[in-house]
Design brief:
The protein has 81 residues and is mainly alpha-helical. It has four helices and no strands. The radius of gyration is 12 Å and the shape is flat.
């Protein structure tokens, strides 16, 4: 169910953050962003993708930053439609 999925994404993000696993936090944020994008909750998708980008920047993965930026651009276009 939707509410349970959201709780699990957020729990995963928080657990990774507390443990200092920035790359895992980024991945959990990225997956949550895709979840929200799939359900057309574009504002929430943007929030999670932005968090993912910040994590990947801190981690130093320019390829993941570029990938997430591409997703952010797609969601921004989706908002305009």
């Amino acid at each position: 169910d939707h509410l349970n999925a959201i709780k699990l994404y957020d729990a995963s993000i928080e657990s990774a953050r507390k443990s200092g696993f920035i790359h895992e936090q980024g991945l959990a944020c990225e997956k949550a962003g895709f979840y929200y994008k799939r359900y057309c909750a574009v504002h929430k998708a943007l929030d999670y993708f932005k968090q993912a980008r910040e994590c990947y920047e801190e981690w130093g993965s320019s390829m993941k930053v570029d990938f997430i930026q591409n997703q952010l651009n797609k969601v921004n276009v989706q908002m305009l439609l």
